Structure formats: structure tokens, C-alpha cells
């Protein structure tokens, strides 16, 4: 009889996120990767390690504290294919989807990139890793790569297919005398002491005889020097020269792991999942099952009388005694490819998607929020009414009442109020179906104007622009130009209350003015912007994004660079207004920096500087567009991916969020949005600890104020001007010397240019 363990929920299940990422210092990064989908689990001497498709996190075995690990704090890549821990040791081997390898030991990362950089043809992806003594046997799509963990280098490569061909190796194990490889040809074995295992002739194929069926074997493991092979949801045990059926129960066996001399099977059956534990002799120990936490188990390990379970739906949980405990870092549920907006220090991110041809993808990940370092989400798993709204791609927040609007590319428009009440607008509103698909209501762009009117881009509708006025009444507009599929998307409203609307499908950009009143069509005006002088002078007709800066300039990102419309107030005058192309100084050269860049996102920070997201990384250029301040790529920074799809900025903290192809990360910038007076001035860090070499931020001073830092006796130490409403200081005086321990005063000019003390900074030196 199976022993079934009934799940008793402890406190951690009622609080699903037990770890949060704190706001980072200026100039540093943090990740906001999805940590819900755990695909693998292992343990070192004192920590449990959980792998996700993107990164990993650790849980301290003593106190259950969680630590994230990603590119933002030392790992080499984003995208994990396999992890393995040194038995009883401290080393963790991490293999990435691009075949790069890291070894993490004592919080230090040693990179081994030889496999990634090898010119080997074929499949270099890593399936699994087996560690024995100082060697890691890496199972790849072409053979076995042996890594020496003491020297942190590749020791050997074994191509073991028939006649020396490359074959997919799923896993490796050993019993002390032989090494075993589970391959697409079956189980192969070779003596451990053979000095030339690179010769395929030294590997013996054992599948197809002695009881082990021929063909692909999913994995091989060893327990107390007994070898088990997993094939077609059946475990086979090697007994002398024969193989016998060891275990099968009709469920799909996703994984077989040996941990603490216990065999742990991760199994699924339709929508159910469970962990089966067996002794080395094949006796049943127990079944660990929970309707929420073991729906899609991928792997389990035993450590210190506790079972740790990796599940792609529930994340990481542990089971001890008769209760479960769920441990997940606070994070979004998935990557984000839709719009992002920050209002009142809350990030709203739309997780839906369309492809390059503007076709829906039926993505139901929903809408995510980050507030006070806590992530929350709105989708059908939490609110069943949202099941009819796939592909949420646009979002707009009304600052007046913090009501949130989100556009579904297929399901219409949704409004979420502060009390989490939800209303959907589709057939019951002005929102129209696509003329080529009557069942699809596609809302592709949203913006709220200063009077709380909501402007809606309705892709595919015969009237593709709508406004829901603050009084709840609707009005629709026909755009008087030929549009492919009536395609419209992002909307930006300028300081003249003109609406700028992106026209996908290579149609450019349109500017719309409704004149004195929305309800009077008699004074409506439209202006089409496309490439070429006299047509608007855009760099290209394929417009990806737009943004308004603090001078009311409209920045237009296209597939071939950036154009700037610097005279928006003259669009409908006889003089007109065409785009200009920015010339940017870089080193000793000046040129059209973005002339060949596919610009996907533009955001403006508190100092009116422009963050430009492309498929080749991120640029920050000065307010006047004359100078490059930062250039971030995967190779020179912690940016998760060069493919930057969206950018949003928290004006209060200066944190810049990048939604990339591999997830969200953020960089703490130096500029914040302006305040007219010195209010709520905050210094971080304060006190400044011994040995601190980072940047000190003074936030909340008056906009562009002159800020002075003095000793208590009034002697000037440092003087600078704020970027927006934030000052950054490196802790050195005007001669470049580090300041001594003590208390320093901060003085700032206000809007009347009157100087006053606004705060103090304490330095503690050794």
C-alpha cells in the first residue's frame, strides 16, 4: 500500500512570496525575473538551490532565507538549462541555454565558456550534469563534456555515438566501476579507469539485450552502486548482466533523482502530479501530493529530513512531517512584452504579446504590478472574469483616481479600480471588433489626458480611435488616411493636448487635434508623418514607439533610428513642423547614432535625458541629445538581454525598468522628477558605512537646485547641481579626497534661490 501524506498548510502558503528585492543603490542593478516556474532543485552543504528557465535562487537550510542569483549579481547569463551540486560540498555547476557554464562556490562565480565558444557543429545544449569527485560530466546534444572543477577547465570531450557519430546524451551516472550514459541510442557504459573514453569503441551499448529495451533512454541514476535506467515511464534495474523492471505505476515519470540514498520520482497524470519516494531496494516509502503544490513537479531532492520539490506552476516548496511550505522570491509571473507605466511609485506591466505581424498570441499572463517592492498580478488564475482577455498589451493609469485601464488584443478593454473591482468594455461600449475578425476586439494603445479622458487605439476597427470622456460617454473617430488593417497602437498626448498615434504596418505616425471641444468634429485636424522631406521626415515609416520630453518634443523611434519633432505646437500651422534627426557626440566623432538601430522604446527621465531601447541594448543620451551618457549591453553591464522591448522610469527614485526578451531588470539612475521645493529630503545610504565606495544619493531637493555639502564649521566640502530633484555624490571633497568620519550638513537652494539646510549625512570610517 502507498503511504499517502495529507498536506497541512503552514503560514508560508498564505503568504506566497517570502522574499523581496530591496531598492538598489544608485548605479546598481536588480532583477525582476519570474521565479514561479522552478524546473530543477539540488542542494549543497547548507543551501537548497532552485533553477528556473531564467535564473536561480537559494534557500538557506537553517533559516529559509532566500537569495536571488542572476546576471545582476554575478551570474554570466540568463536562461538556465541544468544545475548540479557537488555531493556534500559547496560547489554548484550551472549550465545555460547557450552552453555557457558557471561554477558558483562561496558566493563567487567562476565562468567556463569554452563549450559556449567552441566551433563545434551540432547541438551543444546541456541536458544534465553529473558530479563525481572533482569532475563534472556534462550531458549535451552531441556527447559528454568533462569539466575539471579544481582547475575550472574542460578536461575532455567524448563523442560516443555509433561509429563515432555525435548523439544526444540525456544524462550520466556512475557506480564506481563504470560510467553510464543515457543516450538516444540507449544506455552505453564504459570502465571508469579507461584512459581513452574519447574513443567511442570503448563504450558498450547495453540496450536492446538482457531485458533493457532498445532505443532512447531518458535518464540514468545510481543508488548505492545500483544503476537505474528510466525508459518510457518505467524504471529498469541493472542486476549483474541483466536488467529487470524495477518500478512503474502508469503515471508519466518526468524525473528520477537519487538524493540521500532515496529514489524520488516526479510524476504527472493529466492535471495531477506527485512525488513518489522509493528505497534503494525498491520498497515504497511514500507519496507526497498536494493539489496546489505538486501539479507539475519537475524534480525533488531529500535534505536534512525534508523533501524539496521543484514545480513549474507552484515554484519551490518543501515537505516535512505532514506539512508543506512554499518558498518563492517576490517576482512577476512571466516576462513582460506589453506596455509599462509607473504612476505614484507603482509599476504596471502588461504581459501580453503580439508577434511581428501584429497577430495575437493568446497570452493569458495578464497584468503585473510592483509597489513597495511587492509584486502582484491580475489574470484569470486570480480573477476568473479576466479569462476572456488574452494578450493584455497596453496599460494606462489615471493619476487622479489611480484607476487602471488595460487593453487586450482580442478581448477588449478592462478597467481595474483601487478596490480591485473589474469592468470589461467590449460589445457594451464603443470598442469595435476588427473588420476582418468580428470576434476579436483589439485594444492596442491607451492614454489618459489631463482631464481624465481615456483615449483608446482600437486596432482593426473602422473607427480606430475612441475617447471615453470623464463623464463616461464615448466618442469615436475615423482616421482619414489609408491604413493597413486599420492598424493603430501607442498613443502619446503632448502639452498642446494633441494626440500622437503610432500607425503599425509601415504607415508612420499621425497627429490629431480635436480643437476646442471633443464633441465638435468641425475643428478636428489630422497630420500624417512618414519618411521623406515634405512628408514629415521620419527616418522610416515603420514606427515602433513615441515619447514626449519636457520641452514638448516628440521623440519617434523607428526601425531605422530616431526622429525628433521639435515644434509640435506648429503642426497645424502654415509653417508646419517636420522631424529632425539627432546628431550625437561619441568620443571624437559625431553622427546619426541611431541611423541603423531598430528603436523599440523611448523613456524620459527627471533630468529630461532620453533612455533609448533597441535590439542592441540601451542608450542614455543627454537632454539636448548631444552626448551619450551610458551605453548598456549584455557584454558590458548586467542588462539581461540586448533586446529591450519596453522602458519605464520611477520618477521618485530614479529607477529605470527594462523589459527585455529575457525578463525585467532595473538600473538605479541618477535623475528624479522635479519638486519645486526641498521636501522629504532623503539620503541613501545614511549613515555611510565603513569602506563604502558607491554613490550617495540625496533625493527630494528642489528641481535643479544648487546643493552644497559642508562640515559642521561651514567649510565647503562639495558643491553640485541636482539632476531633476536628486543629487549624487561619491563621498569625496573637491580635491578628490575621501571625507573623514563625522557629520556633514547638506544645503540646498529653493525655488526663490534661498539657501537652507535640508539634511545631514553621517560618515563612519574605520
From TrEMBL:
<feature type="domain" description="PorZ N-terminal beta-propeller">
    <location>
        <begin position="48"/>
        <end position="204"/>
    </location>
</feature>
<dbReference type="InterPro" id="IPR015943">
    <property type="entry name" value="WD40/YVTN_repeat-like_dom_sf"/>
</dbReference>
<dbReference type="InterPro" id="IPR011110">
    <property type="entry name" value="Reg_prop"/>
</dbReference>
<dbReference type="Pfam" id="PF07494">
    <property type="entry name" value="Reg_prop"/>
</dbReference>
<keyword id="KW-0732">Signal</keyword>
<protein>
    <recommendedName>
        <fullName>PorZ N-terminal beta-propeller domain-containing protein</fullName>
    </recommendedName>
</protein>
<dbReference type="Pfam" id="PF21544">
    <property type="entry name" value="PorZ_N_b_propeller"/>
</dbReference>
<dbReference type="InterPro" id="IPR011047">
    <property type="entry name" value="Quinoprotein_ADH-like_sf"/>
</dbReference>
<feature type="signal peptide">
    <location>
        <begin position="1"/>
        <end position="21"/>
    </location>
</feature>
<dbReference type="InterPro" id="IPR048954">
    <property type="entry name" value="PorZ_N"/>
</dbReference>
Amino acid at each position: 500500500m502507498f503511504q499517502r501524506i495529507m498536506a497541512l498548510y503552514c503560514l508560508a502558503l498564505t503568504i506566497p512570496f517570502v522574499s523581496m528585492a530591496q531598492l538598489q543603490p544608485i548605479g546598481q542593478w536588480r532583477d525582476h525575473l519570474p521565479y514561479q516556474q522552478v524546473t530543477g532543485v539540488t542542494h549543497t552543504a547548507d543551501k537548497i538551490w532552485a533553477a528556473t528557465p531564467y535564473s536561480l535562487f537559494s534557500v538557506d537550510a537553517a533559516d529559509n532565507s532566500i537569495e536571488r542569483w542572476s546576471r545582476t549579481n554575478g551570474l554570466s547569463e540568463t536562461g538556465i538549462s541544468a544545475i548540479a551540486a557537488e555531493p556534500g560540498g559547496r560547489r554548484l555547476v550551472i549550465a545555460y541555454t547557450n552552453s555557457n557554464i558557471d561554477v558558483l562556490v562561496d558566493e563567487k562565480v567562476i565562468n567556463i565558456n569554452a563549450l559556449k565558444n567552441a566551433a563545434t557543429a551540432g547541438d551543444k545544449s546541456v541536458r544534465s550534469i553529473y558530479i563525481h569527485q572533482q569532475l563534472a560530466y556534462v550531458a549535451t546534444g552531441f556527447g559528454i563534456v568533462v569539466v575539471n572543477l579544481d582547475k575550472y577547465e574542460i578536461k575532455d570531450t567524448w563523442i560516443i555515438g555509433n561509429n563515432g557519430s555525435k548523439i544526444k546524451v540525456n544524462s550520466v551516472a556512475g557506480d564506481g566501476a563504470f560510467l553510464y550514459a543515457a543516450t538516444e541510442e540507449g544506455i552505453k557504459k564504459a570502465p571508469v579507469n579507461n584512459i581513452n573514453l574519447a574513443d567511442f569503441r570503448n563504450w558498450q551499448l547495453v540496450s536492446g539485450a538482457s531485458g533493457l529495451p532498445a532505443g532512447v533512454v531518458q535518464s540514468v541514476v545510481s543508488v548505492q552502486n545500483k544503476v537505474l535506467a528510466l525508459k518510457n515511464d518505467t524504471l529498469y534495474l541493472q542486476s549483474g548482466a541483466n536488467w529487470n523492471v524495477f518500478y512503474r505505476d502508469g503515471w508519466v515519470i518526468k524525473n528520477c533523482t537519487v538524493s540521500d540514498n532515496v529514489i524520488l520520482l516526479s510524476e504527472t497524470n493529466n492535471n495531477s502530479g506527485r512525488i513518489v519516494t522509493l528505497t534503494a531496494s525498491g520498497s515504497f516509502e511514500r507519496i507526497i501530493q498536494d493539489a496546489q503544490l505538486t501539479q507539475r513537479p519537475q524534480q525533488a531532492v531529500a535534505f536534512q529530513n525534508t523533501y524539496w520539490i521543484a514545480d513549474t506552476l507552484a515554484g519551490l516548496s518543501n515537505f516535512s512531517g505532514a506539512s508543506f511550505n512554499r518558498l518563492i522570491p517576490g517576482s512577476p509571473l512571466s516576462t513582460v512584452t506589453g506596455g509599462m507605466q509607473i504612476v505614484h511609485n507603482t509599476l504596471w506591466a502588461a504581459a501580453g504579446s503580439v508577434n511581428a505581424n501584429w497577430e495575437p498570441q493568446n497570452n493569458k499572463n495578464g497584468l503585473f504590478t510592483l509597489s513597495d517592492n511587492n509584486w502582484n498580478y491580475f489574470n484569470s488564475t486570480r480573477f476568473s472574469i479576466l479569462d476572456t482577455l488574452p494578450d493584455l498589451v497596453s496599460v494606462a493609469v489615471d493619476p487622479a483616481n489611480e484607476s487602471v485601464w488595460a487593453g487586450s488584443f482580442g478581448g477588449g478593454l478592462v478597467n481595474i479600480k483601487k478596490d480591485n473591482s473589474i469592468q470589461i468594455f467590449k460589445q457594451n461600449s464603443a470598442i469595435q471588433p476588427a473588420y476582418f475578425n468580428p470576434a476579436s476586439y483589439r485594444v492596442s494603445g491607451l492614454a489618459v489626458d489631463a482631464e481624465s479622458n481615456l483615449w483608446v487605439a482600437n486596432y482593426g476597427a473602422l473607427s480606430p480611435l475612441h475617447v471615453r470622456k470623464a463623464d463616461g460617454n464615448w466618442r469615436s473617430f475615423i482616421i482619414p488616411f489609408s491604413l493597413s488593417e486599420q492598424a493603430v497602437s501607442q498613443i502619446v498626448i503632448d502639452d498642446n493636448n494633441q494626440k500622437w498615434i503610432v500607425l503599425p504596418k509601415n504607415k508612420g505616425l499621425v497627429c490629431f487635434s480635436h480643437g476646442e471641444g471633443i464633441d465638435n468634429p468641425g475643428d478636428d485636424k489630422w497630420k500624417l508623418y512618414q519618411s521623406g522631406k515634405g512628408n514629415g521626415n521620419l527616418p522610416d515609416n515603420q514606427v515602433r514607439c513615441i515619447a514626449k520630453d519636457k520641452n514638448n518634443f516628440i521623440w519617434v523611434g523607428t526601425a531605422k533610428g530616431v526622429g525628433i519633432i521639435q515644434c509640435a505646437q506648429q503642426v497645424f500651422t502654415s509653417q508646419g513642423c517636420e522631424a529632425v534627426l539627432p546628431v550625437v557626440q561619441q568620443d571624437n566623432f559625431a553622427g546619426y547614432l541611431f541611423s541603423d538601430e531598430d528603436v523599440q522604446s523611448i523613456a524620459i527621465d527627471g533630468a529630461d535625458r532620453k533612455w533609448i531601447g533597441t535590439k542592441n541594448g540601451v542608450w542614455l543620451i543627454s537632454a539636448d541629445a548631444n552626448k551619450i551618457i551610458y551605453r548598456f549591453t549584455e557584454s558590458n553591464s548586467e542588462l539581461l538581454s540586448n533586446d529591450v522591448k519596453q522602458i519605464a522610469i520611477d520618477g521618485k527614485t530614479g529607477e529605470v525598468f527594462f523589459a527585455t526578451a529575457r525578463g525585467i531588470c532595473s538600473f538605479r539612475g541618477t535623475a528624479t522628477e522635479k519638486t519645486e521645493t526641498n521636501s522629504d529630503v532623503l539620503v541613501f545610504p545614511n549613515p555611510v558605512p565603513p569602506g563604502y565606495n558607491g554613490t550617495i544619493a540625496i533625493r527630494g531637493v528642489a528641481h535643479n537646485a544648487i546643493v552644497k555639502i559642508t562640515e559642521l564649521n561651514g567649510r565647503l566640502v562639495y558643491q553640485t547641481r541636482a539632476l531633476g530633484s536628486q543629487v549624487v555624490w561619491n563621498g569625496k571633497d573637491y580635491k578628490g579626497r575621501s571625507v573623514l568620519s563625522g557629520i556633514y550638513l547638506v544645503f540646498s537652494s529653493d525655488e526663490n534661490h534661498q539657501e537652507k539646510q535640508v539634511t545631514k549625512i553621517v560618515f563612519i570610517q574605520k
